[in-house]
Amino acid sequence: MSNQSNYPTSLFSSNLTFKNENQSGGALSIAGCSAEKLVKEFGSPLFVLDQEDFYLRARAWRAALDNSFGSGQLYYAAKSFICVEVAKWLKELKLGLDVCSGGELAVALAADFPAQDIEFHGNNKSEVEIRKAVKAGVGTIVIDSFDELNRVATIAKELGEVQKVYLRLTPGVDAHTHEFISTAHEDVKFGFSIASGAASEAIEKCMSQSSLKLSGIHCHIGSQIFEVAGFKAAAERLVAVLASFRDKYSMELQELNIGGGYGIAYTKDESAISPDLVIPAIAAVIKDECAKAKLALPRISIEPGRAIVGPTTTTIYVVGTTKSVKLENGAERRYVSVDGGMSENIRPALYGAVYSAFLANRSSTAKLISSRVVGKHCESGDILISEIDLPADIAAGDLLAIPATGAYGRSMASNYNHIARPSVVAVINGTAREILRRENEQDLLNLDVNQPPRQLS
Ligand SMILES: *Cc1c(COP(=O)(O)O)cnc(C)c1O
């Protein structure tokens, strides 16, 4: 078994270094590329992705799966961050890909990603998306509702295909962050509830459709999870479903997908959950429960997104305006504005996500003062870091690095205020290249049309 201590659990990517480092930061380099040179070449804000770190994490999760279960599949969650180049890396790594829209599927297909290794998620896939997926030969469609079950069955029949499917179940385990909550019924838009009986009804319906091949069940219990208890509880409940399936149909479902959600560090106080810790723990429960129920061990798959790409990427900003304000309690707060904000990192504004920041062009010995890192958008809530101690001498022109921005940063980016979305640069062995270019003003104007009005037929 691989060594647990080898897995990088800090908020920094593996090949990130600060020269003349102190607690404020230092002259930042990632994979031998200096932040200053990167910004000079590619502009800012800039997502810098440590490519070797991506491979290292992807391989570590894959290896943990293989070590614990002998085989299995890792479906990388495309929604965390995908582009054609990253899809090619995943293909090279022989991993699977979890997509949840026609757009994400289009990226995978543009990278010639093997369709049979794609899994298609989503609670409201359109007929167009389903047809496209079935035609492309997508390996697995994860069915999320009764409506969709009928839609997929009808479309597959029409196209003369038997589509392999999973059913997404809600096991009554909700694990967002450090604890998990066990609930009897699930007030969420995703999946079929096990407790209410919807799951077994969906299984029956699936089994009665000749154009569907039910090969397994799926659950995803949340995101940014640090405790294995939630995964264990979910695994137990899913194995119980596998057992009742066997009792009813005298055959066994071959596959069990336990989703993603593995937590990473965003601050120096946090530590990512290691694949060598969580996967064997889940494996022990699944093996135990399967043995008790006299079931063969199903093929296990997982869907990490954040855990693979999150820590690989650091955003580099150029500092602009700073100002100090007096708070009601007499204390002072300094606002440090950077040249991006909620358009390339919506997570703090959307759900209070916490990040850290470091000086990236130099270190400072100035006193650390209470600061708030804000963007340039016309919105008071455009805050990247609500409260952080930063050196008092930070000024316009300094570079500020925010680590662990690889997941749900660029992928959730918007053009609010007509700000162009930043580029993503992959760095490896002292070299750098754009894998997603920065938008320009022409890109922003390209959608504006000048059409005469016309009657609709
Ligand atoms: C979002 C999501 C994932 C990935 O979650 P991470 O927190 O990025 O690991 C995996 N599976 C499903 C079904 C999801 O919705």
Automatic annotation (TrEMBL):
NCBIfam families: lysA. Keywords: Decarboxylase, Lyase, Pyridoxal phosphate. The keyword Ligase does not apply. Residues 57-310 form the Orn/DAP/Arg decarboxylase 2 N-terminal domain. This is Unannotated protein. HAMAP family: LysA. PANTHER family: DIAMINOPIMELATE DECARBOXYLASE, GROUP IV DECARBOXYLASE. GO terms for molecular function: diaminopimelate decarboxylase activity.
